[in-house]
Amino acid sequence: MAKDFVKSITSMEDDFAQWYTDVVTKAELIDYSSVRGSMIIRPYGTAIWENIKEALDKRIKETGHENVYMPLFIPESLLQREKDHIEGFAPEVAWVTHGGDEKLAERLCVRPTSEVLFAEHYKNIIHSYRDLPKLYNQWANVVRWEKTTRPFLRTLEFLWQEGHTCHETEEDADRETIQMLQVYAEICEKYLALPVIKGRKTEKEKFAGAKYTYTIESLMHDGKALQSGTSHNLGDGFAKSFGIQFSDRDGNLQHVQQTSWGFTTRIIGAMIMVHGDDRGLVVPPMIAPTQVMIVPIAQHKEGVLDFAYDLQKKLSNSIRVGIDASDKKPGWKFNEYEMKGIPLRLEVGPKDIEKNQVVLVRRDTGEKQFVSMDGLEETITQLLTDIQDNLLKKATDHREENTHTAVNFDEFKQLTAKEKPGFIKAMWCEDQACEDKIKEETSATSRCMPFEQETIADTCVCCGKKANKLVYWAKAY
Amino acid sequence: MAKDFVKSITSMEDDFAQWYTDVVTKAELIDYSSVRGSMIIRPYGTAIWENIKEALDKRIKETGHENVYMPLFIPESLLQREKDHIEGFAPEVAWVTHGGDEKLAERLCVRPTSEVLFAEHYKNIIHSYRDLPKLYNQWANVVRWEKTTRPFLRTLEFLWQEGHTCHETEEDADRETIQMLQVYAEICEKYLALPVIKGRKTEKEKFAGAKYTYTIESLMHDGKALQSGTSHNLGDGFAKSFGIQFSDRDGNLQHVQQTSWGFTTRIIGAMIMVHGDDRGLVVPPMIAPTQVMIVPIAQHKEGVLDFAYDLQKKLSNSIRVGIDASDKKPGWKFNEYEMKGIPLRLEVGPKDIEKNQVVLVRRDTGEKQFVSMDGLEETITQLLTDIQDNLLKKATDHREENTHTAVNFDEFKQLTAKEKPGFIKAMWCEDQACEDKIKEETSATSRCMPFEQETIADTCVCCGKKANKLVYWAKAY
Question: Locate the Aminoacyl-transfer RNA synthetases class-II family profile domain: which residues (chains A, B) (predicted)?
Answer without folding.
Answer: 36-284
